[in-house]
Write a structure and sequence with these properties.
heterodimer; A: mainly alpha; Rna Polymerase Sigma Factor, Chain: A; Arc Repressor Mutant, subunit A; 2 domains; 74% helix; 0% strand; B: mainly alpha; rod-shaped
């Protein structure tokens, strides 16, 4: 009974945090919810392997990121296979890169225009740069913790962050130019 | 607003993306998933135990049958030997 209560407390404490990271990585409310559930199911199954060398936050973030990566890689594989279908059965390009909030039309986050552009730009980053940017500038974690979560050195994290910002600026610059051209 | 300023403003708004909240509490769905997974694992375990039991029973039956066949063969050989011995004895007499 004690263990069940402890687990419930864990879920109540961390579910929003986990969901937030998952959402910012996959940009789909339904998928982010599924991933959040999967994270806690994994935690329940593997709690005995938690070695306490890292903090519980770090452990949870690591599991969350791995689950998001699994989803994104599977999505990429389906996309590549989909290309073969497209040759014979072409369908409309998905020209709208904005997050899929149609699963949750009453999403609490109101996407202001600038935030939408930021999301588009973040979404265009390579996965490791995207992850580091999200953990550093959205979750506001210290670099030392990010290094632990991603099993990289602090120097590697700094380098990824720098490249992420350069690429974000490039992408936003393109968006700015397109906006001005349109108007 | 010039481009650089616009870009900086957008990058500085990253903190707003921290505010995504779950619409519903996921605790019950999580507990349901755990129970479903546990039941599935138990079912798989039961299946393997049943298969192992059937294999053991089959092996036992096989070895009993083999032992019986072997014993019958032995008995036959002993009978043949006994007959031959008798025949030799009769001959000698």
């Amino acid at each position: 009974m004690g263990n069940e209560n402890a687990f419930k407390m864990l879920v109540e404490t961390y579910q929003h945090k986990i969901y937030n990271i998952a959402y910012n990585l996959v940009f789909d409310t339904g998928i982010a919810e599924d991933i959040t559930q999967e994270v806690f199911v994994s935690v329940f199954k593997s709690i005995l392997t938690f070695n306490e060398k890292s903090s519980i936050d770090t452990w949870l973030y690591r599991i969350t990121i791995n689950k998001c990566y699994d989803y994104l890689r599977a999505k990429e594989r389906r996309k590549k296979l989909g290309f073969i279908n497209n040759v014979f059965f072409p369908f409309e390009d998905d020209a709208n890169p904005l997050p899929a909030t149609n699963h949750n039309p009453e999403s609490q986050l109101v996407h202001k225009e600038n935030t939408s552009y930021l999301i588009i730009a973040i979404n265009s980053l390579p996965l490791n740069q995207k992850t580091v940017f999200i953990l550093a500038h959205i979750e506001e974690l210290p670099q030392k913790e990010i290094a632990e979560i991603m099993s990289l050195s602090i120097k590697a994290i700094e380098s990824l962050l720098q490249r992420a910002k350069i690429n974000l600026r490039k992408k936003l610059s393109t968006i700015y130019d397109r906006r001005n051209k349109a108007s | 607003m010039n481009k650089e300023q616009w870009i900086e403003d957008i990058l500085n708004s990253a903190g707003e993306l921290k505010n995504n909240r779950l619409k519903n509490d996921l605790l019950n769905s999580i507990l349901l998933k755990i129970n479903t997974n546990t039941n599935n694992i138990n079912n798989i375990k039961l299946r393997w135990i049943s298969i192992a039991a059937i294999v053991l029973i089959f092996m036992n039956i096989s070895s009993v049958l083999h032992a019986k066949t072997h014993k019958n063969k032995q008995n036959n050989n002993i009978s043949i030997l006994a007959d031959e011995l008798n025949a030799n004895n009769n001959y000698n007499y």
